[in-house]
Design brief:
Residues 23-94 form the Lipid A biosynthesis N-terminal domain. This is Lipid A biosynthesis N-terminal domain-containing protein. The chain has one domain. The protein contains four helices and no strands. The chain is an all-alpha fold. Helix 2 packs antiparallel against helix 3 (52-72) and helix 3 (52-72) packs antiparallel against helix 4 (75-106). The mean pLDDT is 92.
């Protein structure tokens, strides 16, 4: 049993290791960082907060994961990441609009 698990782990994590797998892991780390940033911001504020960095990590991680999904030719993964990118982009656009409005009102 242990040998079979060891063989499987080696096949999955060592034999398949290439630049695309490394990109996939980097993408997953970026995507995970959005939750870390959101958690830290919320803990500091003592309330639920979604900082701008959350949306930028979402865009970066989502874009890299989409590239990885396209390479893997996984239609479920492609559709999920592509839809998410529209949401992340729209939130960044809305935040930029709020900042422009605030700047105009401050002047």
């Amino acid at each position: 049993m242990i040998t079979a698990l060891s063989d499987w782990l080696y096949a999955v994590f060592v034999e398949q290791l290439n630049a695309w797998v490394v990109l996939g892991f980097v993408a997953q780390i970026c995507f995970t960082m959005r939750f870390v940033v959101q958690w830290i911001a919320s803990e500091r504020a003592k309330r639920s907060v979604v900082p701008v960095a959350f949306w930028f990590f979402s865009m970066l991680g989502g874009t890299l994961l989409l590239a990885y999904a396209i390479h893997r030719q996984d239609p479920v993964f492609i559709a999920g990441q592509a839809m998410g990118l529209f949401i992340y982009m729209r939130n960044i656009w809305l935040i930029a609009g709020e900042r422009r409005t605030a700047q105009v009102e401050a002047d």
